[in-house]
Amino acid sequence: MRRALLLASILAAVPAAQTRAPETPPDFSLYFLGHAIGYERVVGRRDRHVEATFHFDDRGTAIDLTASFDRDEHLNPQRLVVKGRNYRLFSSDSEVTIAKGFAHVRDLHDERDVVAGGRAFFPIDNYAPIVVQEALIQYWLAQGRPREIAAAPSGPVVRIRSVGFDVIEARRTGPPEARFPSRVERLAIDGVVWGTETAWITTSGSMQRPETTGLVALTTWAGALPFEAVARGWESQFDHLLRRAAQDRAEDLRRLKQTTPLVEVGSFALVNARIVQGTDAAPIESGTLVVRDGRITAVGPSATTRIPGGVTTVEARGATIIPGLWDMHAHASQIDWAPVYLASGVTTIRDLGGDNDMLVAIRDVIRSGAALGPRYLLAGLVDGPGPRAFGAVSAATPDEGRVVVRKYRDRGFEQIKIYSLVAPEVVKAIVEEAHKLGLTVTGHVPNGMTAQSVVETGFDSIAHMQLRGQAGSPESIAQIAFFKAHGTVMDPTASWNELGGHPASVPLESFLPGVSRLPVPLKRMFDSMSGGNGDRQAWRARLVDSAKLLKAAVDAGLLVVAGTDKGVPGFSLQRELELYVEGGMTPLQAIQAATIMPAKAMRLDRELGTIEVGKRADLVVLNGDPLARISAVRDVRWVVTGGRMYDSAVLWRTAGFGR
């Protein structure tokens, strides 16, 4: 009921001309990070012809998408047209027409014909509109639940599987209001977006009339962040359904570990490798590193470092070993990030806001040793109240802020992330309570505050932190001195700024080589993203100037930590380090920004961040030398997490990335 009231308040708060609020209640209520943000209204007859209006408000940005869908009396699709935005940064503009066994597909600026006859085929473009996903499920049922369905333009295939049944309580709308239990089937859907969706369906008819199937709820991903839709009458079950989806994905992560082979585990020694310890010491040019029970027990020159009897040796001649990398600005509620992070050498992440139940489930199953993935450190997101808030957790008063901090502490979060709408007096209360309980604080600079004022209030770090002016200018020198005096950690997300601002004339491949390997739904998402028709030289100059300021900050002794926000999985963290070097950092300084500096910022430098005896065995084995060429961080041979060594190429395949 609380979420239904939140949705009603959104529709009432946004001007009618902007929302075009429907005269009747929406068919689906839409949620982003658990926060009610909009609606989908379906018009026309849902059996043969459907038109959908999809609208939500994301932190003050109106997102609108329209679609029409036609099918025949046997539920076979005939035509789909989708146009609009599905997230602030990503667009849909597609048309699929099916006739005589072929589908003509227009997707953004591309056109092609694909075979649609003789196999199950369905047109679908990303997660929205929700009613088309309902039609997809109905088609899957009518086809006898095939293992896979060819799809376009999301494609190449969609896979749907049944994973169980739940008994939940529906609310019958209209007088008299009534509640009744209903048995719903829970499905896992892969291939519509990057990542597994969870859908719940209820069927009032038989297998012979699957068109009576209704979609109860769907958990999906918009711009790599959790997005949910709930059919009218089922809103009261929202929290329960999210927890159930989290359990399923944690179980998927368990199975992923069981099917991913290890290179080594237990006791082993990497020999004859260049070892970059992550300290200021010179690299060991031909070194040996011994791992026992998840810890580093010896490291030094191969000529003088003893390998205990019975320890397996792994030849690493020509390779370079560095500490496991960190992504300090992640949004990884999807389990799909786990193998990608490891494949690219990232062994620890700090998540800065997602689906809390999902994040806790993923963190806990990885921490237990039962699942495959990097170490998860969690920052609990809190915003101010209102329809434009980011996420479901808000605080309007100092007391509410203190309660939020305690709840996050009780769930094992290491940090609090404050967002833009938190009032200054609430910020102060949150910071004081967090520090009292041993948590650190990061976040965006809230409205009405400045970078200086949040630091003076007690922020330990600032997300997306940018310095002003030019490197060496009086303005930048004064800023750096101020932040150094307060011990502020900089989280600049340089690669995200590059990605989000790149002109349409600049292909992603030019600065993120290898993006053609991305799974099709993920690549389509980024292909629809650009900063418009900006000037290429001005864009590049801004990036270099910002990177030079980061170099000045590092030289002055500030902690700069590498992070990506919602960047390209597996690529953006590596690109972050390249940008640092383009701005003048040494390759070692760039590596330290993704190893020891994050470990210091999260107070884990006694355990992690460098290659030293006694520390945890989180390591990356590269085929090249990153001190000679920082882009060598892209070429990972093996990754070691907690003493377990995996082949990077195997992890990429596990994640569905091509080579």
Question: Which terms summarize this structure?
Answer:
659 residues, alpha/beta, eight-stranded mixed beta sheet, 17 helices, 31 strands, 28% helix, globular
Summary?
By secondary structure, this protein is of the alpha/beta class. Helices cover 28% and strands 32% of the residues.
Write the layout of secondary structure elements.
Layout: H1 2-13, H2 16-19, E1 28-32, E2 35-43, E3 49-58, E4 61-71, E5 77-85, E6 91-99, E7 102-107, E8 110-115, E9 121-124, H3 130-142, E10 149-153, E11 157-172, E12 178-190, E13 197-203, E14 213-222, E15 225-231, H4 238-259, E16 267-275, E17 284-292, E18 295-301, E19 312-315, E20 320-323, E21 325-330, H5 337-343, E22 346-351, H6 356-367, E23 375-382, H7 398-410, E24 415-418, H8 424-436, E25 440-443, H9 451-457, E26 461-463, H10 474-485, E27 489-491, H11 494-501, H12 520-527, H13 536-555, E28 559-560, H14 572-582, H15 587-593, H16 596-601, E29 619-622, E30 636-641, E31 644-647, H17 648-654
Helix pairs in contact: 4-6, 5-17, 7-8, 11-13, 13-14, 14-15
Can you walk me through this structure?
This protein has 17 helices and 31 strands. It is α/β, with parallel strands linked by helices and 659 residues long. Helix 11 (494-501) packs antiparallel against helix 13 (536-555) and helix 13 packs across helix 14 (572-582).
